[in-house]
Each structure stands twice: as structure tokens, then as C-alpha cells.
């Protein structure tokens, strides 16, 4: 009886390790390319695994051009989420300033998440 009770307790405690990881969130902004100087604002949600930030979601608010900058931001978000390499994000051709602003904002958001406990 004691052994089966201990086995059940161990099994229940082990299931806790499969619980959803803590979600960290950070918001950062950087100037991209638009005539009004409105920055790209990224809200980044991530978890931490083995000391590394794992990006789960990125939401961008911006006033970049719909056909170039807006499309570029969507491509950059997909690239980061797919590759999980936020230190080396490839720029989008024709959207150099937007890509640079996105990278700066992303880098700042990830730094903020790294500091969060």
C-alpha cells in the first residue's frame, strides 16, 4: 500500500514538470522607415529554456508602408519564430530601414526578457 501511494505521488509530481512554461513579455520600439518618424513597436512573448529565450509570439505596431515595410515586418516575424535565431535576423530586400528598426526593437525586447526573473 505504501509503495503504490508513493508511486502515485511521484507520478502526480512528475506531471507538474509538463506544465506550461512561464510566459515572459517585453515591449520595445525602434525607428524604421516612415515619413512621420513613428517607431516600430514590438510586443514579444517568450519562454526560457535552458537559459535561452524561446520566442512564442511577436506583435508589431507600425506605420511602415503597407506594400514594403508592412510585408517586410510580417516576413521578419515569421523568420524569427521559425528559426528562433533572434541574434541574426536577415534583412528584407528593399526594406533596409524597416529591417534595421525591427532588429533593434527585437534585440531590446529580448534583452528585457533575459533580465526578467
- Topology pattern, helix = H, strand = E: HEEEHH
Structural class: alpha+beta
Percentage of β-strand residues: 15-25%
- Tell me the CATH topology: Sufe protein. Chain: A
Please tally the β strands and state the result. Answer: 3
Break the fold down into its secondary structure elements and pairings.
Blueprint: H1 2-15, E1 24-30, E2 40-49, E3 52-61, H2 66-83, H3 96-115
Antiparallel strand pairs: 1-2, 2-3
Pfam families: FMN_bind
Signal peptide: 1-19
Protein name: FMN-binding domain-containing protein
Would you mind describing this structure in some detail?
It holds the Pfam family FMN_bind. Residues 32-113 form the FMN-binding domain. Helices cover 44% and strands 23% of the residues. The chain has helices at 2-15, 66-83, 96-115, and strands at residues 24-30, 40-49, 52-61. It has 3 helices and 3 strands, in the order H-E-E-E-H-H. A hairpin with a 2-residue loop joins strand 2 and strand 3 (52-61). With 117 residues, the protein is an alpha+beta fold. It has a single domain (23-115), classed as Alpha-Beta Complex (Sufe protein. Chain: A).
Amino acid at each position: 500500500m505504501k509503495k503504490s501511494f508513493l508511486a502515485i505521488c511521484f507520478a502526480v509530481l512528475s506531471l507538474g514538470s509538463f506544465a506550461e512554461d512561464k510566459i515572459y513579455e517585453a515591449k520595445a520600439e525602434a525607428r524604421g522607415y516612415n515619413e512621420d518618424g513613428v517607431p516600430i513597436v514590438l510586443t514579444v512573448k517568450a519562454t526560457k529554456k535552458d537559459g535561452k529565450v524561446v520566442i512564442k509570439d511577436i506583435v508589431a505596431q507600425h506605420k511602415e508602408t503597407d506594400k514594403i515595410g508592412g510585408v517586410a515586418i510580417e516576413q521578419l516575424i515569421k523568420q524569427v519564430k521559425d528559426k528562433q535565431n533572434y541574434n541574426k535576423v536577415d534583412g528584407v530586400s528593399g526594406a533596409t530601414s524597416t529591417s534595421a528598426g525591427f532588429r533593434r526593437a527585437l534585440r531590446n525586447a529580448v534583452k528585457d526578457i533575459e533580465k526578467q526573473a
